[in-house]
Predict the structure.
Amino acid sequence: MENNKKNSTYQKNSQDSANSEMIYFNDINYAIYKIGNWKNSYKINLIGISNEIPATEVTKDHVLFNMNEIRKSTFEVEGKKVNGIVGLSIQLNKDLQGIAMDDLIKEEKQEYENIVDEINSLDFEDSNGAIELENDEFLMYKLEKDHHVTKAKPANAVTMKHHSEEIQRLKNMNG
């Protein structure tokens, strides 16, 4: 019921701005997030390090698919095969370097289970709803295929600003 009320609000607000493009919450060409905090603390899983929380079922499916694809990749680190999440996190987070590989592998597995549980328990926007592309309530990324890779490009001003701040935050995190 609450989502339907939100949907009506978005549609009413959108009527006030006839020039703004509408993005539907079920559009597979967009990943839509809210800024928020995860229930659990994450240091290995790159999705959990971000404060971007999936706001739609489509985005949830996209995030879970990408996370699983990264986990399927393997790296050899210190003579051990590790999944892509562990491999990338070691490269991107200096604080993880020097931690025993077995501990990182165990921690990643627990983080993965926690983040999947969190994502699957989120309340999502009504799939039949829509919002203006230019808004300050949602982060919106246009998903585009580039050969076999899907690239997420910031689709509105608030997302571009947030995206730039996130990149800087991650850089600062790594000194």
